[in-house]
Amino acid sequence: MRMPATGTMVLAAVCGLAAALGAFLAAGTQAPLYESRAELSDPLSLLQGEQLRGTDFSLEVVIARTAAAEDLPDAVVRRRVTVSEPDPNGHRTITALAPSPRDARDLAARYTVSYIDHRTQAVSAQARNVRSALRTQLKRKRSRRARQRTRQQIRLVRAAERAAPPARFLRRAPLPAAPVSPKPWRNALLALVAGALLGVVFRRLAEHHARRPGDARPIAEAGGRP
């Protein structure tokens, strides 16, 4: 025998409300997290393989520098800060999470500064290595034309090093106005829907079990009649 639709609706409502209340109360016990984002331009991040040979750039160095500046363990910085993949223009987003708005902003700003400084130093070190190699070649050149060509290459490397920095700020990290987590009303709404669906599933299972022949106990327990 099919159970009344009203019973299914009541069970779904009860399960949904109970789940929503539990999710809302659970969200209230969680510490808030604030998010701040900075954007930077780093065209060199688009280079791959042989083009990066000789560079000494590593995100692990950026993490270590940020951790030292913020007096935090490396693992905390690694967990709280994420760096997006570069877009086609070489732009990256630095996202930081922290328990307070000021900490989130400062962490994103410090990480971005460490990133830019380390990238600049890595490029400068590479330029010095290239100039040193070219000077060594210059000493070995015998023809006047070859020596002039090598000197020109040294001047070009020096000019490139003095040009615009390889990485720079596009947008500084703002002070977040509201936490991104937890969101009690969103969690409660999702729990309401999930709880209601679960209640319908349980009711359908009970209805299916009650229709089994030769077993009157599930029918009696579900409130139906044989």
Order of helices and strands: HEHHEEHHEHH
The mean pLDDT is 75
Q: Report Rg.
A: 31 Å
Number of strands: 4
Determine the number of helices (DSSP H or I, runs of at least 4 residues): 7
Strand content: 5-15%
Low-confidence blocks of residues: 49-54
Described by the principal axes of the CA atoms, the overall outline is elongated
**SSE class:** alpha+beta
**Order of strands across the main sheet:** 2-3-1-4
Through-space gap between termini? 7 Å
Largest sheet: 4 strands, antiparallel
Helicity range: 55-70%
Write the layout of secondary structure elements.
Layout: H1 5-28, E1 34-41, H2 59-70, H3 74-80, E2 81-83, E3 91-98, H4 101-140, H5 144-162, E4 168-171, H6 184-210, H7 217-222
Antiparallel strand pairs: 1-3, 1-4, 2-3
Helix pairs in contact: 1-6, 2-3, 2-4, 4-5
Salient structural properties:
4-stranded antiparallel β-sheet; alpha+beta; 226 residues
Provide a descriptive summary of the structure in words:
With 226 residues, the protein is an alpha+beta fold. Helices cover 60% and strands 10% of the residues. The protein is built from seven helices and four strands, in the order αβααββααβαα. It has helices at 5-28, 59-70, 74-80, 101-140, 144-162, 184-210, 217-222; strands at 34-41, 81-83, 91-98, 168-171. It has a four-stranded antiparallel sheet with strand order 2-3-1-4. Strand 2 and strand 3 form a beta hairpin. Helix 4 (101-140) packs antiparallel against helix 5. The longest helix is centred in the middle third of the chain and has 40 residues, at 101-140. The protein is elongated.
